[in-house]
Amino acid sequence: MKFLGRILGFFLNALALLTTQIFIINFLPYPFNQINFIFSVLLAFITAGETKKVFWLALTVSYFLDLFSGSPFGVGIAATLISLFFIKWLQFNIFTNRSIYMVFLSAIIGITLYRFLFIIFLTIDNYFADQAVWYYGQISAETLWEVTLSAAMLLIFYILRYKIFGKNINARTK
After folding, report:
1. Helix 75-93 vs helix 51-67: crossing angle, to nearest 10
2. Sign of dihedral through CA atoms 70, 76, 79, 83?
3. CB of 84 within 8 A of CB of 45?
4. What's the DSSP call for residue 130?
5. In angstroms, rounded to a whole number, what is the distance separating the alpha carbons of residues 54 and 51?
6. Is the pTM of this model over 0.85?
7. Span 90-98, mean pLDDT?
8. Cα dihedral angle (79, 35, 104, 118), rounded to 10 degrees?
9. 10, 70, 100, 113: which could join 83 in a potential S-S bond, CB 3.0 to 4.6 Å?
């Protein structure tokens, strides 16, 4: 019964992430609808040290996002997982102290890498599908908004966690 409760909780968390992301995209005004809430939350979980569950949650949420998006299937999943694995490696091997600066820098690097990989995978697909050329100026502006606002959101998550749970935020967990 405990196992079923954990599975149900996992899917409710995934549903809550998806619902919040859809709400942000559809109901917030222009610059704020570019916030990548899902990726910010996943980065917050990786920063907190909960890495095993994060990758399964990322896979599940990315799968459902890819089902309902206009991009080719698998592009979002691949970009999300590759960038999360890179940020996990970066935080555990390079940015080891989890200071507020390192969290902000890892958010900027992670979201930029995610969007860069997403655009590269879509460009490769468009090349083989002979589709129209993109307007990279508009894509760059939207990516800049996404990186800035999502990194600020992760910074707010980090500060709130620090204020709520105290100074043990830098402790590593398995």
Report:
1. 160
2. positive
3. no
4. T
5. 5
6. yes
7. 86
8. 20
9. 113
